[in-house]
Amino acid sequence: MITVVEGISAAGKTTWCRAHAAAHLVPETFPEERRSWPETGSEVARAWTDWNAHRWTQALEMEQRTGHAVCDTDPLKLHYLWGLCRIGEMPWPQWDLQLAETRAAIAEHRLGLADLYLIKTITPEAARTQRDGDIRRTRDRFELHLRLMEPLTEWYVAMEGALAGRVRWTLPPDMPDNTAPNPARYDLAAFDGLIAALPRSR
Question: Do you know which InterPro entries this protein is assigned to (predicted)?
């Protein structure tokens, strides 16, 4: 079983993962060289897809080893670029490049759709309070993440339609462990249904 825990910065997802799924955790990680990458172009789309595929492989390995992988943020990660395009921070042609790379990776079983998605929504006020209370982390893109709350929600509403019963809008008091395997893990029709359900622009 693979569970994804999602939410904007300071929503509490990492805290929940560490408290409830430490033995099954696939942490959020980033390539060290990412700050030197260009923002747009086919090469950076491919580089991000390769990194996301690396995290998916970690999830598969954890699932194989322990029976359950819990991912702090979605290895698919496509919602992030789509959200940036939705709020005008990235050009839509970059979305087209990233979408094509991601779809090809799913077809190759290098990326996939999880069995369960736990989504933590939060008000800006609550997120600011939690950010201010966590002195261990520097959140230099916090205001940007606040703006991404609406498109993040739109993404997982579309996901809920594509994968009925696999999206929950809360972080439960205990780690779920009774979700049936997702038969659409690598199903391009389900993925295409998700993409078709997304609003394209404002």
Answer: P-loop_NTPase
For residue 85, the domain's CATH number is 3.40.50.300
Question: Is the confidence at residue 35, as pLDDT, over 90?
Answer: no
CA distance 4 to 166: 10
**3-class DSSP state for residue 137?**
coil
The Cα 191–Cα 18 span in angstroms is: 29
Burial class (CB in 10 A: 0-12, 13-18, 19+), 102: buried
Tokens of 80: 């992030």
The amino acid that residue 141 corresponds to is R
Count of the separate structural domains present in the chain: 1
**Whole-number Cα distances in Å, 200 to 16, 92, 113, 157:** 32, 9, 21, 14
> What global pTM score does this model have?
0.90
